[in-house]
Design brief:
2 domains; about 25% strand; six-stranded antiparallel β-sheet; Glutamine Phosphoribosylpyrophosphate, subunit 1, domain 1; four-stranded antiparallel β-sheet; globular; alpha+beta
Length: about 270
């Protein structure tokens, strides 16, 4: 009833999970991650104890294969569980119990684990892995690209309902107080993967407004636009007028004007 990608960004070490399901609020149940440690998605018949247990084991330097072996060995319902794990070193593992509803299975590669159950077929996880490996851009966008590829391949055979994106980064939370860089959830929607992408766009826009370097770039562009507007409003008319759109390099270049308000598009 769910498909997910669990991955590590080789460039930054960020850890994240993108997941979609025909179940309500999958983001509140399945994904767990901790910066510098690892990430896990527990699904099919989810066992939420897998999350903290797996993170504690990875923090003690157990590799993902050993972690999954320990978790499932102690679980009487392991045959109905599915999980994918990636640790901070990029080691990965995926588990699909023998009693998970078909189609169920997974794929792993360095730094990524992809898995799903009650899918239309293996093409879902295959296309997710191909999208992950071929997509460029930021880590969250690569996760979303893989999730979208699975959704477009047919995804959950029962339909769509929820999706989530969780990315952990050292001091990535608000004010650097924790590692929760991105935590976006669509709990109930007819097209949750598309809606998750829309929220990611909003997150990127708001992040830019908190980034001093990006703010400086935005401010520089606004200053250039204002110079053009002011010069256009005050420039002499007729044959002596400068070409439209000429930039002002200093206040001295402003033409003389009567005292009062300078009209610049009403502002």
């Amino acid at each position: 009833m769910t498909f997910s990608i669990v991955a590590r960004d080789p460039a930054t070490g960020d850890l994240g999970i993108a997941i979609a399901s025909r179940a309500l609020a999958v983001g509140a149940v399945a994904p767990f991650a901790r910066a510098g440690v690892g990430a896990i998605s527990t699904q099919a018949l989810p066992n939420v104890a897998y999350g903290p247990d797996a993170l504690a084991r990875m923090a003690a330097d157990e590799d993902p294969e050993a972690v999954l072996a320990a978790l499932t060995a102690a679980d009487s319902l392991a045959s109905q569980r599915q999980a994918g794990i990636v640790d901070a070193l990029g080691r990965s593992a995926s588990w699909t119990g023998s009693n998970c509803m078909v189609w169920a299975g997974g794929r792993t590669a360095p730094g990524v684990a992809i898995q799903g159950n009650i899918l239309v077929g293996p093409e879902v996880v295959d296309r997710m892995l191909a999208a992950w490996e071929s997509t460029t851009g930021t880590f969250p966008r690569r996760l979303l690209a893989a999730l979208r590829a699975g959704d477009q391949a047919g995804g959950d055979s029962r339909g769509r309902q929820s999706a989530a994106l969780l990315v952990r980064r050292e001091k990535g939370g608000v004010g650097g107080a924790d590692d929760r860089w991105i935590d976006l959830r669509i709990d109930d929607h007819t097209d949750p993967v598309t809606e998750l992408g829309r929220l990611m766009t909003l997150h990127e826009e708001q992040t830019n407004l908190r980034d001093p370097e990006k703010l400086a770039q935005i401010g520089s562009a606004l200053v250039s636009q204002a110079r053009i507007a002011i010069k256009g409003a005050l420039a002499p008319k007729g044959d002596d007028a400068p070409a439209a759109g000429t930039l002002i390099s200093s206040p001295a270049e402003l033409p003389a004007a009567d005292a009062g308000t300078i009209p610049v598009d009403g502002n």
